[in-house]
Amino acid sequence: MERMTIDIVADAAPPPRRRLDWARILVAAGLALGVVGLWARASPAFVAWEVAGDHRRCFGRRQLPARVWSSDPAEVRDWLESRGTPTPLLPSEAGTAEIVGARYCALEDRVAAHVYYAGQAGMVSVYLLSGPARIGDGWSGTSHGLHVRLLRAVGRYVAVVGESPGDVAAAARAFTVTVARARVDRPRPSC
Q1: Domain with 87 in it
Q2: Are the CB atoms for 33 and 59 separated by under 8 Å?
Q3: Which of 113, 63, 50 is closest to 85 using CA atoms?
Q4: Tell me: the pLDDT tens digits for 24-41?
Q5: Number of folded domains in the chain?
Q6: Position 42 confidence tier, pLDDT thresholds 50, 70, 90
Q7: How far is CA 102 from CA 21, 24, 53, in A?
Q8: pLDDT tens digits for 89-106?
Q9: Contact at 8 Å (CB) between 150 and 133?
Q10: CATH, residue 113
Q11: Which of 116, 68, 112, 109 has its CA nearest to residue 92?
Q12: How far separated are the first and last CA of the chain, in Å rounded?
């Protein structure tokens, strides 16, 4: 018995193979990285890293790069507000340091009002931050070998940075007491 083989010839071409669309993959990956970046920039550790690095840069100079020099917190506040930064009342002292001036500092991903406090015992920075920060009821930690406290006061994110944990805690306390006192002393609307 002979075997017969039959060759079947199909007239239709095989379906085309799907090629990867690299442009779409790269766009999707870029968007995913952007979302992760936005989320990460608001993390307390990233914010602390930004402000601690800037504190080191500013206080590491021969002379502080302040744009307004004053030991009067009201004058520093007026200067910041005249440039569009809503500013809560600033304490005259931050731990063992006294207010000496302020300027705006460009951080990694935002600009912050940087208020300088200096004294014989140490230096403290208070930052009025723009942009997001996920700090909840507050955050404390270290970055660049400095102590950092993040808090929220009068709708603003505030960072306090210094070498001494006592000075940072005292500055944060002074800041919150000054803000609370301003709320109590605020004139009530009359009926």
Answers
A1: 42-185
A2: no
A3: 113
A4: 878 777 777 766 666 666
A5: 1
A6: confident
A7: 52, 47, 17
A8: 899 988 889 999 999 999
A9: yes
A10: 3.40.1000
A11: 116
A12: 115
Q: Where are the alpha helices (DSSP H) in the chain?
A: 22-41, 44-59, 73-82, 165-185
Residue that has been written with the tokens 């070998």 in this structure? 145
Single-letter code of the amino acid located at 111: V
Look over the chain and give the mean of its residue pLDDT values, rounded to a whole number. Answer: 83
Q: What is the pTM of this model?
A: 0.76
| Confidence class for position 163, pLDDT limits 50, 70, 90 | very high
Specify if 116 maps to a domain: yes
Alpha-carbon distance values, 67 to 36, 81, 126, 175, 186 (Å): 35, 14, 15, 22, 29
B/e letters for 34-49, b = 16+ CB within 10 Å, e = fewer, are: eeeeeeebeebebbbb
**Amino acid in position 157:** Y
Rounded CA-CA distance 105/125 in Å is 12
